[in-house]
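Review form for a predicted model. The reviewer records the input and the model, then writes brief findings.
Reviewer: anonymous (R2)
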Amino acid sequence: MAACGPLGGVEDGAGAGAGGQPALGATGGAAGSAGAVVLPEPPAFKVVGYQPSWAGSLANIQFDKLNYVNYAFAIEAADGSVALPQPTRALLDLSSRAHAAGVRVLLSVGGWNDGNDSAFNSLSASPEGRAKFATTLDGYVDQFQLDGIDVDWEFPGPDSAVGFTAMIRELSAKLRPKGKLLTIAGAAFRDGAAGVTPESMQYIDLVNIMAYDGDNGAGHSPFGFAQSALQLWLDKGVPAAKCIVGVPFYSQPGYTPYSALVTQNPQAANQDQLDKQFYNGIPTVQAKTTLAMTSAGGIMAWDLSQDARSELSLLSAIYLKSHPSP
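Model under review:
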C-alpha cells in the first residue's frame, strides 16, 4: 500500500546542527548556515513527488514541474533512532539539484515495510523514543540541508492516537522554529487515518493522501477513489489547502511502472487498462489534477522513478493541466 517499496540500503547515525528562525518553509539549506538557499514561496497549488532511494536517477527528475520532492525512505527503529537511505551522498546531491531549481526536499520516514508499524508504535509511546526521533531527524535536516520531514506511518490506529500526536508535536517543535516543513502520508481509508487526531493537524503542513492500491484490479485507483479519499480528510476537518491528492505511476496487479506500460504500447498513455493491468493514464491523471485544483491543495505522485521520459510523461500531464496556456 501507499508510498511503498523495497527498503533499500540504509545507514545508521544522526546529524547535528542548529540554526536561526526564518519564515515557515523559507529556506532551502540548514537554517542560518553558510550558503543556505532562499527559495521562492510555494504556489497555492502544490505538486509533490516521492523519489525512492532504490530506483531511478536523480538526473531524470523533472524539477521544473515539481514543488516538493520527498526522498524515501529513512527507517525508524523502536528506540527512536532513524537509519538513512544509502548512499547518503545522494541526499546531498538531491538537495543541491532541487534547490537550484527552487524545489524543496523532504526526507520521508517510514513506508509500508510489509505492514509492520511496530517501531512507530513503540517509539511514539515512549518519551525517550519521541525525543530521540525528533532530535535525530532535526539533525538530518541540518546536515543534509533539507526543507523538512515527511512522516509515512502506515498506519496509526486509534490505539496510537495519543502517541502519534505527541510524536508529531515534538517533531514540529524542532522543525517549525527553523521554518522547516512537517508533512505526513495519509491513508485513503478510514481505519488507516484513525490515529491522526485533529490536535495533530495544527503541526502538520500537508497530508499526502495515498489514493491508490484501493484494490488489486480496476479498483486500484479510479477517479472515484481519489474523490472518496480526499473527502475522508476533509470530513476529518483538515483544510483543503493541506490536502494533497495522490496518484499512482504504476499498475495493479503486478506493480508495473507506467513507463513500462507505455513502452509496451504507447496507446496505453490514454487508457487506464492494458491487458490485465490497471493504472492511471493521462486523461485520468489530468482529471484528478482538476479535482485537486478545485477541492484540494495539490497533487502527489508515487513515484517519480516510474514515469515515462517522453511526451507521455504523467508529471508533464499534471503540469500542463495545472499551468494552462494563457
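Findings: Residues 250 and 256 are 5 Å apart (CA to CA).
Further findings: The chain has one domain: 10-17+26-322.
Recommendation: see findings above.
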